[in-house]
Amino acid sequence: TAKVPKHVYRQSYQAPPLPQYDFVPQVTTPRLTKLDLQRDYNIDIFKTQLLDADFTALNATLCYDNQFCCHFEAARKPISSSRVYAAYRYRLAAYSGSQATVQRLETAALKVCAVFACTSVELYSCGRIFPAGVTVGNTHYFSALNVRASFPQAARRLIMPTSVDGSMLPLPVHTYKWQQVERHNLTDVTIGLLTPKLDLLTFGIWSNYFLDKVSQHNLDPILLPAQQSSGAAT
User: Fold this and answer.
1) d(Cα 4, Cα 10) in Å, to the nearest integer?
2) Does this entry carry the keyword DNA-binding (predicted)?
3) Chain-centre distance of CA 7, in angstroms?
4) Cβ distance 115 to 161 under 8 Å?
5) β-bridge pairing 106-118 and 176-183
6) pLDDT by residue (tens digit) across 129-167?
7) What's the rounded Cα separation, in Å, for the pair 150 and 96?
8) pLDDT given at position 165
9) Is 18 inside a domain boundary?
10) pLDDT tens digit sequence for 188-223
11) Backbone dihedral angles phi then psi of residue 187, each to the nearest 5 degrees
C-alpha cells in the first residue's frame, strides 16, 4: 500500500513570497460598487470625532467612557487639491457596551476603535460608499496610521482587525502589524499600517465579548409567497 509522506511535505513546504509593489500615489483608484451593502447601524451609537478634510497629522485619544479609550496616530500626505472629484471624510470612533446589535436583531457586547470613511460631514453618511456614477478622488494617502487600546480579559471574547478599502476587501495581512501584549487583567492591542495606503474605508480594532444569553438567531424561516399560500413548511 502506497503511503503519502504528508508530515514530511508539510515540514518542508514554504509559502511562496507575496508580490511586493512600489507604492504610487494616484488621484483615482478602482472601486467596487456593484455590491448590495448593508450599513452597520451600530455606528450611530459610537462616540465619534470628525477629522478636518485636509488633516496631515493626528495624535488623538477618544474615550467612550471613563474606562475604555482609543488612541490614534496618523499621518497623511497630499496628492491633489482638485475639488472636481468627490472625496471621503474620516471620523475616529470609540465604543464599549452591550447596546450594539448584530444586523439590528441580536444585542452584542462590543468594544471598537476605528477610523472610518463617510461621504459627508454627517454621521448618517458613515458606513456608506459613493455610488457608481460618482468619481471619487484621493486627496491624500495615509503614510502612517496606528490604533491602540486596552481590552479587559474575559473567558469568552474575540479581538480582531477590522479593515476594508475601495475594492471592498480587507487589507492584506502583510500591509499592517498586529500586536497583542498581555498584562494584569488587560490585553494591549495595536494595529498599524506598514505600507502607505490609498482609498481606506475602515481601519481599526473590533472585539466581541460574547453574552451569556439565549441566541435570537433562530428566527422563523422566510417563506416564499407560494409556500405561504400552500401552507408548506421548510
Assistant:
1) 11
2) no
3) 37
4) no
5) unpaired
6) 999 999 999 999 999 999 999 999 998 899 999 999 999
7) 12
8) 97
9) no
10) 999 999 999 999 999 999 999 987 765 555 555 444
11) -125, 115
Total domains in the chain come to 1
| Residue 93 domain flag | yes
By the 8 A CB rule, do 74 and 115 touch? yes
Q: How far apart are CA 226 and CA 107, in angstroms?
A: 33
Alpha-carbon distance 39 to 173, whole Å? 24
The residue whose grid cell reads 487639491 is: 81
In a domain, 218, yes or no: no
Is position 186 within any domain?
yes
How many CA atoms within 13 Å lie on the side-chain side of 66? 0
What amino acid occupies position 216? Q
Q: Could you tell me which of 31, 72, 80 has the C-alpha nearest to residue 53?
A: 80
Range of the domain at 87: 23-212
Cα-flanking dihedrals φ and ψ of residue 227, to 5°?
Answer: -70, -40
Maximum average pLDDT range among 32-46, 99-113, 181-195: 181-195
Residue 40 has pLDDT above 70, yes or no: yes
Q: How many CA atoms lie within 13 A of 6 on its CB side?
A: 2
